[in-house]
């Protein structure tokens, strides 16, 4: 019998597998996807948010625990478990050396439009390189890895893991029989349910306009996160955490693919212009805070608009101050022409822009700080980086809600144990998106998902190995 079974194939699962193997346990990792799509949402990531009290290798200045905590507190509106959040924050300060031991490389500090050279460590080669490095290290250490092996059910007895059930399936034209895999302990790291269209529809329901908002959602992440295991765990009585409608949801290019669009589908000029809905009206403060701290609220904001679509509008003054999108937007020499290209009601759109332009108060524009360029006398206000949109050419980008991962998950504690009736399991642990709702009740800040996955993946893997030796989790 295997010691530790890890279900999932992304960052959290890999961290768990590596830690369990380092602790001396035999490890089997089951990844639902084919090898070429391995890595879950982690393959689409770029960075890790890290606490540090002084400059450290690829991180400039300092980003102390309290500032990290306040950033998280702000984006979640207090919907977070402080004990677990601070655990993630502290773990983020010490994980990079361990990551390097497993082949992960970090690139020199970034500067300019991303504003995160101080807070986030970027992976050389992005998330795909990180995932590949972890898989190479796992194979070298003797972790058994099986692809195209989805788990459809678990056997749980009195809160203890007994076995995982694999359905019969076709792989490369070969019929594989159903399997039952026993293990002394198990780590669940199989992601959320963002790619389950039926579950999204059930969670979001209909709005007052009779629409099913989720029908217009795009999925930034992996198509393999269907939530099968999460739903089964909840039906087996595992304690739940989080709101099923809350998610890391970004406003992305409306032309993005249905699945796996990744980071390159993001539109990063929102804070430098205005955003209108299909009726040509603004609906939120575009300059509320730095983009890396607020970009993840915009998917939900767009989801609340008619037909779940918005339009980011800038003029030529904004060009060069943000990461350019992969595909060019609509371009016009006048706002009238831009309205027509975007199929927006011209009269309302022009009135919205005229009111906004008139409300802008002159200041010292600086996109690298919370400047004093703001509006007066309009609702919603724009509190920073407010400049008239008056210099052609003008640009417009259609936006759709892009779901990265969902926050409904399994309740846990500092040992990463799954809870049943408020009691921690002795041999079943959880990491990554399946428990991120303990830290992220709502909102997001750049790189914190990887911080959560890395911290709890390492904790879960270590404690799963200890449970095989009948030692208490730490």
Automatic annotation (TrEMBL):
Q: Say which enzyme class the record assigns.
A: oxidoreductase
EC no.?
1.3.5.4
| Record-linked InterPro entries | CobZ (IPR012831), FAD-dep_OxRdtase_2_FAD-bd (IPR003953), FAD-oxidoreductase_2 (IPR050315), FAD/NAD-bd_sf (IPR036188), Succ_DH/fumarate_Rdtase_cat_sf (IPR027477)
- Domain named FAD-dependent oxidoreductase 2 FAD-binding is located at 3-439
Per UniProt, the keywords (alphabetical) are:
FAD, Flavoprotein, Oxidoreductase
Cofactor(s) the record lists: FAD
Task: Spell out the molecular function terms from Gene Ontology.
Answer: oxidoreductase activity
Q: Does the keyword Oxidoreductase apply?
A: yes
Q: Per the record's keyword annotation, is Oxidoreductase included, yes or no?
A: yes
What protein name does the entry list? Fumarate reductase flavoprotein subunit
Q: Which organism is it from?
A: Marinomonas spartinae
| Gene symbol of the encoding locus | ifcA
